[in-house]
Design goal:
Blueprint: E1 4-8, H1 13-24, E2 28-32, H2 40-50, E3 55-57, E4 69-73, H3 82-92, E5 97-103, H4 107-119, E6 128-134, E7 136-138, H5 147-156, E8 165-166, E9 171-173, H6 174-187, E10 193-198, H7 203-211, E11 214-215, H8 222-225, E12 228-232, H9 238-255
Parallel strand pairs: 1-2, 1-4, 2-3, 4-5, 5-6, 6-10, 7-9, 8-11, 10-12
Helix pairs in contact: 1-6, 5-9
InterPro entries: NAD(P)-bd_dom_sf
Organism: Sutcliffiella horikoshii
Protein name: NAD(P)-dependent oxidoreductase
Length: about 260
C-alpha cells in the first residue's frame, strides 16, 4: 500500500490529476514543479490542491526520508542541466519505486531521462521502476497546443470554427489516467514498460465527432508497438470529459 509519494511535474496535466487522485487515497503527496519560476497557471494549480492536508509543495527538492514512489511526469520538460539531474538522482535514492510517465510521442526522451537517473543510482540494479506511455490525454489543464483545448477555447471565445486536425490513434481522459496509474502499480509489479490504451475502442472516433475534428493517420514507432498494453477503463464518457475540460477552461478565462 502506498503511504507517501513525490510527484515531479505536479503542474503538468497528468501530474496534477495524479496528485489529486493520490490525495483522495489519503497518500501523503509532495508536489514538485519542474521549473523554479512558476507561471500563473502553475500557481493556480498548486493553490487548488495546496489546502489539502495530504499535500505539500516542495521547491527546494531535498528529501531525506523513504518514499514509496517517485513519479516523473515528463511531458512538459525536454532537458535538464547537471545540477537538476543530480537533484533528481538524489531524490531517486530514497524511493522504493520510480515511475516515468510521458506521451508515447516522447518515447525517446522518457527512456533517455530514465537511463540518466538509473545510471547514477548507487544500487541501480535493485531499483524498482516502471515507464508508462500515454496517448493524447484530454480533460482539465490540457496543454494549450492540443486540438481539444484549441477547439474549446474557440467555442468559449465565440470565434468562428476553423478546420482542425488531430493526429492520434487513441485518447484518454486525465482522471481515468490517474486512477489507472495507481491501480496498475498496485497490480503489475513486474512490468517495466507499458502503453496505456482506452478500453473503449471508439473513444477517439467519439471525440472527433463531438468536436468536429479531422483525424490524421498516424504510424506508431516500432518501439511503441512492442510495448505491453494496458487497457484503461473509461469511467467518464467522452461528453463528460469534454464538459469537465470546458468547465475548467471557462473558469480560468473568468479569473484571467
Amino acid at each position: 500500500m502506498m503511504k507517501n509519494a513525490v510527484v515531479l511535474g505536479a503542474t503538468t496535466q497528468v501530474g496534477f490529476a495524479l496528485c489529486q487522485y493520490l490525495i483522495d487515497k489519503e497518500v501523503d503527496v509532495t508536489g514538485v514543479v519542474w521549473s523554479e519560476k512558476m507561471d500563473g497557471k502553475s500557481e493556480e494549480m498548486l493553490m487548488e490542491i495546496g489546502r489539502n492536508a495530504f499535500f505539500s509543495s516542495q521547491s527546494e527538492r531535498f528529501f531525506n526520508q523513504s518514499i514509496d514512489a517517485v513519479f516523473y511526469c515528463l511531458d512538459e520538460i525536454d532537458n535538464l542541466d547537471e545540477t537538476e539531474q543530480k537533484q533528481y538522482v538524489d531524490l531517486a535514492e530514497h524511493a522504493k519505486k520510480l515511475v516515468f510517465i510521458s506521451s508515447y510521442r516522447k518515447f525517446g526522451w522518457n527512456r533517455e531521462f530514465r537511463q540518466q537517473v538509473m545510471s547514477k543510482l548507487t544500487d541501480s540494479q535493485d531499483q524498482a521502476y516502471c515507464a508508462i506511455y500515454l496517448p493524447m490525454v484530454y480533460g482539465p489543464w490540457q496543454h494549450e497546443e492540443e486540438s481539444v483545448h484549441k477547439r474549446l477555447l474557440e467555442e468559449l471565445e465565440q470565434k468562428e470554427s476553423v478546420p482542425m486536425a488531430i493526429k492520434e490513434h487513441d485518447v484518454l481522459f486525465v482522471e481515468d489516467v490517474s486512477e489507472a496509474i495507481y491501480n496498475f502499480l498496485i497490480r503489475n509489479e513486474d512490468v517495466k514498460e507499458v502503453l496505456f490504451e482506452n478500453d473503449n475502442s471508439k473513444a477517439l472516433e467519439e471525440l472527433i465527432k463531438e468536436l468536429n475534428l479531422t483525424c490524421l493517420t498516424i504510424v506508431e514507432p516500432e518501439e511503441v508497438k512492442k510495448l505491453t498494453k494496458y487497457k484503461v477503463p473509461q469511467h467518464h464518457t467522452i461528453k463528460e470529459g469534454i464538459q469537465a475540460q470546458r468547465d475548467q477552461l471557462n473558469q480560468r478565462l473568468k479569473i484571467d
